Inverse folding.
């Protein structure tokens, strides 16, 4: 991009029923895109094997969570599967003004709350599994949750999927590399939206002057 043209950051939201693959897509995007960073949520859910505190989530207690809510430090928050989750406000506001993009792995309740305040900045993608059998296979294959938790997540998936209409883009996650490719394409196109690019008037005026128009 020409240095005269700067851009406001965007907020890329990925939602899906649990196990459809949004975390896998998110990790691949983050690994390959230096201008994209993950919005690290706070949660009261216990840490899973393989997760890192401060990287995947900030794992906090219920009292601390409540205090963040009361201080208005969360841009949105919701209860999912009996645990509390929320998005810290400050990193989001900093990223937008600095022209950096942020990725959110949040549910439909959080997406609705962020959409209300930041309608112009948000790009939303809903990820569907290819089939219910495959969804269950992926949840079991992840081997991180107990049988009871897996059953609860499967039972909630129909409810979560009913919100696909509230999203701008919808993607069926068949082959992971194809899904990552598709979300990268969305990101590329959204970054080129005219309204996100500042300085275009001066840039085009200069081009026109230089070409004698
Ligand atoms: N509203 C909201 N939802 C969140 C946040 N962080 C995670 N979630 C959602 O909470 C649900 C459960 O997340 P998690 O416990 O990590 O399980 P998994 O995504 O199914 O592996 C998922 O639908 C996440 O997208 C957050 O900060 N806000
Ligand atoms: N396209 C895919 N094909 C096969 N397995 C997948 C695919 N995407 C993700 N998985 C696997 O499915 C499981 C759930 O994926 P994950 O990214 O944790 O889902 P979510 O974040 O939506 O709960 C993981 O074991 C992951 O490796």
């Amino acid at each position: 991009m020409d240095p005269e043209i700067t851009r406001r950051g965007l907020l890329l939201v990925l939602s899906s029923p649990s196990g459809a693959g949004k975390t896998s897509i998110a990790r691949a995007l983050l690994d390959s895109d230096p201008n994209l960073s993950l919005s690290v949520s706070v949660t009261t859910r216990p840490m899973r094997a393989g997760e890192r505190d401060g990287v995947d989530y900030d794992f906090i207690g219920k009292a601390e969570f409540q205090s963040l809510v009361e201080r208005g430090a969360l841009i949105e928050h919701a209860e999912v599967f009996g645990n509390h989750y929320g998005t810290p406000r400050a990193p989001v506001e900093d990223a937008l003004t600095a022209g950096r993009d942020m990725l959110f792995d949040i549910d439909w309740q959080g997406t609705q709350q962020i959409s209300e305040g930041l309608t112009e900045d948000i790009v939303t993608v809903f990820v569907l599994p290819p089939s219910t059998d495959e969804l269950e296979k992926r949840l079991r294959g992840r081997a991180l949750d107990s049988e009871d938790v897996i059953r609860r997540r499967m039972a909630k998936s129909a409810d979560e999927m009913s919100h696909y209409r509230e999203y701008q883009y919808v993607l069926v996650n068949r082959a992971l590399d194809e899904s990552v490719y598709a979300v990268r394409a969305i990101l590329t196109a959204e970054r080129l939206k005219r309204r996100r690019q500042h300085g275009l008037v001066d840039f085009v005026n200069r081009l026109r002057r230089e070409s004698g128009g």
Observations:
- The chain has eight helices and eleven strands.
